[in-house]
Each structure stands twice: as structure tokens, then as C-alpha cells.
Amino acid sequence: QVQLVESGGGLVQPGGSLRLSCAASGFTFSNYHMSWYRRAPGKERDVVATITSNGGSTNYADSVKGRFTISRDNAKNTMYLQMNSLKPEDTAVYFCNARHQRPNWGVYWGQGTQVTVSS
């Protein structure tokens, strides 16, 4: 059974930090590129950051460059998102996404974790 379970969300003040985790099971994690997406209130779900299957390459949305860092530990089947200098506009539900390195071989989603940035 495939599972992606996000954790680490919560309420944080502007300028604060959070670290999200995505624990994967039920598939060969190291064969999948991983991404974090987010859906802000009233908006569509957008990609935040992506990391390749071997962790060798990362990509970020312009809005989070220099503040967020995506990483993964293939030995632990876990992906992370370190979020620093958080802003109110970062408030969203954050989702974990897994996409097989071969096109059309499989895409999985987590249920999401809420991040709220507010004073």
C-alpha cells in the first residue's frame, strides 16, 4: 500500500522556521523524483520545490528561493522541506508528491499538512 505522510506543519510567526517531513512507504522511493506543492486559500495547488530521485538536483519556485531547502534521505524513505524566514503568504496546505523517474510510471500524493504564518 502506497503512503506519503506529511508532518511538521503548524502555526509560526512571520520570520520563523518550520521543517516539513514526508515519509514514504509502499514503493521504491529512490526511483521517484519528489516535490513539495502547496495550496493557499482560494488558489490552485502550485509546485514549491523538486528534488531528483538521487538528490543530485533541486529546483525552487521563485517565491521561495533562498528561504526554503528541499532534501531527501533515500535510506530513510523520507523527504524534507526546511522553511526559513516564513511570510504570511507562505500560509497554505503543503503536499508531498512522488513522480517516477520514467514518464507515466506513477504519481502519488500525500494528504497534506497545514502551515499557517501569522502573528
How large a portion of the residues is in β-strands, by DSSP E? over 45%
Q: Which regions are unreliable across 5 or more consecutive residues at pLDDT < 50?
A: none
Radius of gyration: 14 Å
Counting DSSP E segments of at least 2 residues, the number of strands comes to 11
Main traits of this protein?
7-stranded mixed sheet; 119 residues; globular; mainly beta; 4-stranded antiparallel sheet
Blueprint (SSEs and pairs):
Blueprint: E1 3-7, E2 10-12, E3 18-25, E4 32-39, E5 45-51, E6 58-60, E7 68-73, E8 78-83, E9 92-100, E10 107-109, E11 113-117
Parallel strand pairs: 2-11
Antiparallel strand pairs: 1-3, 3-8, 4-5, 4-9, 5-6, 7-8, 9-10, 9-11
Protein architecture, described:
- The chain is mostly beta strands.
- 0% of the residues lie in helices and 53% in strands.
- The protein is built from no helices and 11 strands.
- It has strands at residues 3-7, 10-12, 18-25, 32-39, 45-51, 58-60, 68-73, 78-83, 92-100, 107-109, 113-117.
- Strands 2, 4, 5, 6, 9, 10 and 11 form a 7-stranded mixed sheet that branches. The chain has a 4-stranded antiparallel sheet with strand order 1-3-8-7, with no helix packed on it.
- Strand 9 (92-100) and strand 10 (107-109) form a beta hairpin.
Write a compact overview of the structure shown.
The protein has strands at 3-7, 10-12, 18-25, 32-39, 45-51, 58-60, 68-73, 78-83, 92-100, 107-109, 113-117. By secondary structure, the chain is an all-beta fold. Strands 2, 4, 5, 6, 9, 10 and 11 form a seven-stranded mixed sheet that branches.
